[in-house]
């Protein structure tokens, strides 16, 4: 059997297409699960979809979509519950899938902290409970509030329901004055089976799995229904604290246990990746007999001071990872190969399969990535699957590793039909008929139709209204598709004139099927609420190739307002100008991204569309961080050479928190150069320009106490 092709063989464009498909299905699943309490896919399938999404994002962080599950961290709180804003955000975890991922996790932490490979670094390892996250706030030892995760920032107030769970104490002794305990509400296997039996006998709802049962039971408007459900709770973390619980993760967990909370007895301290993997194997061996669902093992840096130094990415902590259990394989027949067109014009082949059950889930589609993958090559021309191509009629091995559309791992040539022909990749776009070309160095063939291609136009509009872009309530992918089909919306500016065009008169939104006066008014109001938008969201919403959410934030921070940004992009069309140099000097912006950004904004049709959009908006300038007393606020700094007391990533993050701009190159505009051992041309240029140059100690002394 050939080895399974992993995420490392995805090209950037194939990853974008894959993330788009994952995003759409997971958004739908989130609405069904969190909003309707009526999941349309199994828990295992949902977790697998998130796993695939996170795995791609780990390799391509700049491609992270706004509607990605890793950005959503759940979904918006449901109607019927009052809302609770978490004092400390309830974020998600990044995922790992094998020993190499865990070794990489350990190596990343050591690099960030500048620790040698043999330096002592311990972790905790605990089962990842498959339930519903819950936050419990205690003040003066009394339970005053319980809230679901929600979207990570705002959750649902379920205090009355939480009080009915026996594992949750309503008062505790020996706790800080303010203590926010976090953990997982779950249901044991025997209790789940008994509940479903009672539900079936009474003609009530039968739950798909224990996690859905736990979530549906906790999120009841009537607390007495929750009381009748056999819910349990494991404590494993904390949020807001008036004083530290301990100096270590394990010490804090032990202290929670002393206060009366149930903590998982399988939690262990491990000295490094080998011990983590050994404990993972031990837990996995017990998985079937634990009596409750787990879907992996969570590893956390044990030293809380190091956790604080490591900090957070946008939605996940650097100091923790969820090691998920492995995927499964199955064989089935490939019945057709279809082509889907994304918002960047990428033509992505999708395998249509004879339905097959893989790990308890029915699979009927699989990604084929790009034309090289279909022909048995990677994007560098090397053979994959021993060079076997993929043809309609083939028997293929499907690898389900968190995919909404799983991967084809292998082909059984012994079962290939005699009349099976090599697949010929289309040279024209199936949506608009325009030429589909493949540029040198690009693994993906792209439609050249641009704005005349309906697939690209619709996908751009979907991206425009996505979560990290305009995030217009009531205007999602389904509504965008319908409005586009009916020619109500053809470009982003049309969204903001919708009320004027279809709010009154003969043809009104309220008279459309599925709409009423209230829903139409709510949509118009939601659109108007988004006329005021931040610069970073606006840049991201434009869907410019290579410009992801993180890059949009970086660019917005640099230019601060739309007028400055717009003028700079116009000036940067000439690569000989200071404006171009200023753009590529932004740390994290290279020539590929800069070229894409400038060229997109220079295209007449795109430019006119953006101008019409801007006329409808109030673009907010970037809010600067609070930098009172900072000696480097507003200054441009460059780090070069080796830093010995902190890593480059940590130094950059700290400088930006103090209001400095970090550049990747030295110019006359540079204010300070921090040069460590081995500094070369940048330090030399700084000296030639008379720019202040500090060693690492000088830099730390400068910002000390801020």
Overview of this protein structure:
The protein starts with 11 loop residues before the first helix and ends with a helix. The strands form seven sheets. A five-stranded mixed β-sheet has the order 2-11-10-3-9. It folds into five domains: 8-72, Helix hairpin bin (Helix Hairpins), CATH 1.10.287.610; 83-324, D-amino Acid Aminotransferase, Chain A, domain 1 (2-Layer Sandwich); 327-415, Beta Barrel (OB fold (Dihydrolipoamide Acetyltransferase, E2P)), CATH 2.40.50.140; 534-620, 5' to 3' exonuclease, C-terminal subdomain (DNA polymerase, domain 1); 636-703, BRCT domain (Rossmann fold), CATH 3.40.50.10190. Helix 24 (648-657) links the parallel strand 21 (636-640) and strand 22 (661-662). Residues 1-5 have low confidence and may be disordered. Helices cover 36% and strands 19% of the residues. It has 706 residues and is an alpha+beta fold. It is built from 26 helices and 24 strands. It is globular, with a radius of gyration of 27 Å.
């Amino acid at each position: 059997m050939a080895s399974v092709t992993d995420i490392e063989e995805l090209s950037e464009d194939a990853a974008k297409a894959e993330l788009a498909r994952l995003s759409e299905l997971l958004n739908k699943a989130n609405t069904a699960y969190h909003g309707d309490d009526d999941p349309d896919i199994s828990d295992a399938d949902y977790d697998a979809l998130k796993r695939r999404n996170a795995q791609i994002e780990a390799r391509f962080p700049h491609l992270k979509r706004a509607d990605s599950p890793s950005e959503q961290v759940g979904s918006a709180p449901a109607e019927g519950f009052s809302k609770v804003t978490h004092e400390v955000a309830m974020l998600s975890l990044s995922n790992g899938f094998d020993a190499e991922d865990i070794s990489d996790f350990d190596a990343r932490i050591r690099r960030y902290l500048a620790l040698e490979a043999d330096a002592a670094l311990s972790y905790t390892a605990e089962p990842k409970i498959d339930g519903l996250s819950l936050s419990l706030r205690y003040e003066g030892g009394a339970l005053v509030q319980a809230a679901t995760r929600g979207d990570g920032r705002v959750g649902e107030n379920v205090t009355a329901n939480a009080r009915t769970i026996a594992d949750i104490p309503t008062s505790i002794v020996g706790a800080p004055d303010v203590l926010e305990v976090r953990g997982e509400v779950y249901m044991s296997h025997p209790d789940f089976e008994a509940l479903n039996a009672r539900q079936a006998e009474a003609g009530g709802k039968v739950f798909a799995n224990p996690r859905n049962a736990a979530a549906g039971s906790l999120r009841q408007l009537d607390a007495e229904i929750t009381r009748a459900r056999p819910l349990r709770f494991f404590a494993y973390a904390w949020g807001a604290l008036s004083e530290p619980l301990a100096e270590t993760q394990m010490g804090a967990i032990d202290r929670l246990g002393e206060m009366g909370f149930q903590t998982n007895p399988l939690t262990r301290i491990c000295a490094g990746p080998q011990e983590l993997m050994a404990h993972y194997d031990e837990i996995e061996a017990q998985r079937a007999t634990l009596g409750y669902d787990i879907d992996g093992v969570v590893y956390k840096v044990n030293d809380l001071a190091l956790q604080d130094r490591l900090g957070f990415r946008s939605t996940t902590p650097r100091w923790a990872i969820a090691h998920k259990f492995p995927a499964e394989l199955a064989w089935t027949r490939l019945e057709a190969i279809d082509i889907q067109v994304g918002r960047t014009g990428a033509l992505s082949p999708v395998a249509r399969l004879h339905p097959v059950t893989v790990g308890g889930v029915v699979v009927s589609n699989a990604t084929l990535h790009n034309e090289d993958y279909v022909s048995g090559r990677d994007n560098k021309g090397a053979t994959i699957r021993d060079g076997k191509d993929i043809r309609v009629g083939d028997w293929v091995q499907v690898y389900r590793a968190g995919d909404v559309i799983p991967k084809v791992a292998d082909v059984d040539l012994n079962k290939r039909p005699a009349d099976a022909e090599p697949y010929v990749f289309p040279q024209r776009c199936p949506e608009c008929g325009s030429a589909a070309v493949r540029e040198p160095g690009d693994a993906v063939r792209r439609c050249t139709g641009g704005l005349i291609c309906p697939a690209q136009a619709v996908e751009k509009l979907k991206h425009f209204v996505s979560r990290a872009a305009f995030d217009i309530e009531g205007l999602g992918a389904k509504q965008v598709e319908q409005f586009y089909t009916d020619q109500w919306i053809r470009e982003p500016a049309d969204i903001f004139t919708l009320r004027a065009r279809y709010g009154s008169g003969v043809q009104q939104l309220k008279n459309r099927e599925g709409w009423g006066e209230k829903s139409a008014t709510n949509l118009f109001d939601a659109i108007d609420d988004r006329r005021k938008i931040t610069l970073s969201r606006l840049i991201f919403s434009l869907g410019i190739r290579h410009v992801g959410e993180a890059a949009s934030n970086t660019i917005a921070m640099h230019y601060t307002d739309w007028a400055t940004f717009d003028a700079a992009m116009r000036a940067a069309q000439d690569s000989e100008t200071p404006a171009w140099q200023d753009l590529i000097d932004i740390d994290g912006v290279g020539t590929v991204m800069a070229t894409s950004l400038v060229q997109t904004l220079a295209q007449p049709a795109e430019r006119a569309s953006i101008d019409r959009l801007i006329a409808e908006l109030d673009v907010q300038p970037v809010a600067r961080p609070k930098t009172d007393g900072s000696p480097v606020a507003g200054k441009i700094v460059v780090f070069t050479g080796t830093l010995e007391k902190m890593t480059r990533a940590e130094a950059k993050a700290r400088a930006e928190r103090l209001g400095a701009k970090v550049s990747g190159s030295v110019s006359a505009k540079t204010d300070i150069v921090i040069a460590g051992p081995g500094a070369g041309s940048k330090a030399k240029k700084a000296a030639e320009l008379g720019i202040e140059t500090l060693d690492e100690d000088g830099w730390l002394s400068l910002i000390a106490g801020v």
